[in-house]
């Protein structure tokens, strides 16, 4: 036989050799374990034939090299300009140490939300730094760990003010110089809540007529003014004051807290986070201490662990408002954790002296430009400003804008006769010279030395006094600090994260690379469309592929989280009903098993939530559903279902649920959380869905980033397309986010995923995800009850392990979750959708070896539960209750009734590369009783050490 044997192995086959974990031989072994003759047979047993799509997804796959070449070509179609448009988006310099060690580091971008605090101490500390930065700069004592964008944060603040105000008024005052996109989102959010919006000049504020007001500081056209009198008037009337502000400006300007503000909001984008054609960027919110329990979003707090050592955790009920379901005051389910971490590190990197220096340089550059223009006879406003001015140019507006573009600069069109100029960190003498040349000024500008800020508005308080902001900023020290924090965490670069409903799959390096290229990262979201041709090509092709995948006819890419997608989808349904004269349709049917954001989103849309029962097998109770749909009658607006079900099963009755809804004139919203079980097999738009949101940060490979960013675009059938969210720069647009395409830069990740997988690869990913889940269910079936199975004994892409029977022996689901940390695993989703259970989703990206390691760990834990159940060890003395075990436990005096080996090196754990949690089990109750949500003083660290 010739030594030359042709090979059928394709090293460039990304879908099958890089993205999908199990090899063909491993799949054969797994199929044997689950008792299926083939992968096709398993899928036929799992997915009802009646809902399978007829046509396969058929576009070809690209190799990684071909993908990057395609991306480079698309990037070249974007024109990178100097954008001095402002309006909440600014050029910034990302320190390379932060770009390389945070943004481009899978230890940071593949981590999950820190619900298991013991394995998230690094990013929790980084988020605490961010909160401290926001609280210090805004002058308010409590800040959250970020929101989605400035506009939605402002809308959340409006709703928060309404809940907390003592005023009986139904109106909210919006200052006329708020950013236009912020006004649009506030108006969208206010309408279904019955809030009347009053837009007027600050000087026309009638505090007695409103429950709250929002001011922009500095204003969108640059004005700065002391808001103390207006805020005092609001307080006298029982109303609350919200200030939308700029963190860099607050390095020089009097802080909102010093003016008496109740809430401050804004964007941390210019703290080292690229514009990215709109996002993602971390929005912030801070508030008075008395309002902290009403704040939406997540708050990182300081508690103690089982040994009394300081430990971080998510605090208060605000960490998940939507657990209140239809009683929720917000549907916030995510944050912008990765971007908040970047912004926090930017503050650590520069420290207060560095930030002040950057702010002073930006301000003096703006003064230099204003002085030069005035010297040339231009009408420049305002007199007091930080970084933004407007210039009255009359009928020459178009010519000035065009002349600036010719010189590589974008300016803002303001009205019919003015242009706006917003200076940023990247502005230098060259930019100033080109800018002035566009105005016909060729004299060299004299650098300003005196500020254009009234002395009474100059900040006189300290900020960022904590030692972390004064560390040695040598790059070696910064690099080590970032490494120390990442080493405290468990992310996908260490182990499988088997979270049901969260789809923690591979985020390929090739998918991530383009987002930091300047051609994508440096574009302003309001730049002229012809400068973003590459973005529009990418978004159009991604839209086309998502339509082919889902069976929908149109998509809106604007929602920048899954919960935002739900909200946008329901608003689209409402607008459709109103257009048909069906204003009375306000009932939304939601199964009891639905994710908590579903009823929260419906409540925010002003809908009445009616809960539908589940049948004993976990399916929707069809009889109860039909009865409640009939009872709603012509008031039925929508039904929200998840498919496959939240219980991890393909329900045979999904078409009937959709038919019943449509017979009563309602619309079907299919939650896209479980799309990883559908792609290539089932199209929600073909089985009766009218609208769905897709979690691109789940199924379509955008990484979770330790709690964000996410994207939740919505797909709709043709009859709903006219009612999708509009451009946030336009009145009455129904916009739900600040930027027209949401967090546009990360759409590139999902597009790259679709291109490299190809239609066949995407379908194979779904099939293997189902195989991996059924393999786990089969391996664990004798040790843990599998709570829900399909009619043919199969699960979908996830399975629910019932741990409730162990409670009678004193073993809780928490004990199992914490013990998995000792094995080097993140716990599955705990107590949802059923309390006391674990929902496991392995995804298609995990190899058989990693899944077997996970199974080994759970089987060993089951043996430990048996020891407790048989009375050989008390639950409170067992390794289950003492978990997780730290290095300090290992080296301390050992007085436990089990060995160090059993405690610290259980089956499934790596020995050489073992993950050691930095803290023991965290005391949640202690943290809520003693809320500390900014960096503790240095003495606290010393006390913890003692």
Automatic annotation (TrEMBL):
One of its GO terms (molecular function) is glycine dehydrogenase (decarboxylating) activity. Its cofactor is pyridoxal 5'-phosphate. InterPro entries: GcvP, GDC-P_C, GDC-P_N, GDC_P, PyrdxlP-dep_Trfase, PyrdxlP-dep_Trfase_major, PyrdxlP-dep_Trfase_small. Its EC number is 1.4.4.2. The glycine cleavage system catalyzes the degradation of glycine. The P protein binds the alpha-amino group of glycine through its pyridoxal phosphate cofactor; CO(2) is released and the remaining methylamine moiety is then transferred to the lipoamide cofactor of the H protein. Residues 765-885 form the Glycine dehydrogenase C-terminal domain. It is an enzyme of class 1 (oxidoreductase). This is Glycine dehydrogenase (decarboxylating). The modification N6-(pyridoxal phosphate)lysine is found at residue 698. It comes from the Bacteria. It comes from Paracoccus spongiarum. It catalyses: N(6)-[(R)-lipoyl]-L-lysyl-[glycine-cleavage complex H protein] + glycine + H(+) = N(6)-[(R)-S(8)-aminomethyldihydrolipoyl]-L-lysyl-[glycine-cleavage complex H protein] + CO2. The glycine cleavage system is composed of four proteins: P, T, L and H.
